[in-house]
Amino acid sequence: MERLDVTPARLTGTWHIVCSSFPMWQGERRTSATFTYAPLPGGSSGAQKMSDVVRYRIRNGRRRRIRGVDTRLTGRAGSVYRWRGRGVLRVLSSEWEVREVGADDAWAVIVFSRSLVTPAGVDVVVRDDRLGDASVLKEALESGRRHDAPPLS
Question: First vs last Cα of the chain: how many Å apart?
C-alpha cells in the first residue's frame, strides 16, 4: 500500500465525520461530529504539530468538545500522527494515520489505534466546504464501505 504524505497544512480546517466504525459516533447520543485542525509551532524536536478539536452535539442539543494536540511521527512511513489529549485528557494518547484522500483533499480516511479507554477504528471525513458536493459525498461514502466504516445518520 502506498503511504501518503499528508502534512498539517493539508489537514488544516474543519472536517465532518460522515462514516465511522468508532462506537462514540454510532447511534444518536452524539451527533454532528467534526474535527478542526490548525498548525502549531513545532516543539524542541522541530516535529510538525497541530491542534485537534473534536466538536459534537449531545442528545439535549448542547455542544461538547475534546481538545488535543497531534504530532507528526516523521520516523514512521506515511502520514502518522500521535494524538495527545489536553486538560484532564492529557493522560490519553493514540496514533492515527491518513490512509486515503479524495481529489483536492476533499475527503480523507483516518485509521486510529486504541487508547486507554477507546477502541481502534476508522473515520471518513469530508471538508466543511465540500460537504454539500454530492459527488464528494458519494466518493467518501464509498470509501467508508471499503474500510468497514458505516455511514452516520
Answer: 30
Residue with cell 485537534: 52
Closest CA to 140 of 106, 98, 112, 111: 106
Rounded CA separation 12/134 (Å): 22
CA distance 143 to 107: 9
What span, in angstroms and rounded, lies between the C-alpha atoms of 81 and 108? 14
**How far is it, in rounded angstroms, from Cα 18 to Cα 150?**
9
Residue whose cell numbers read 502534512:
7
Q: What is the pLDDT of residue 116?
A: 84
pLDDT tens, residue by residue, 76-118: 888 999 999 998 888 889 999 999 999 999 999 999 998 888 8
Of the CA atoms within 13 Å of residue 63, those in its CB half-sphere come to 7
CA distance 26 to 23: 5
Contact 93, 70 (CB under 8 A): no
> Residue 125: which of 56, 39, 51 has the closest Cα?
56
- The model's pTM: 0.93
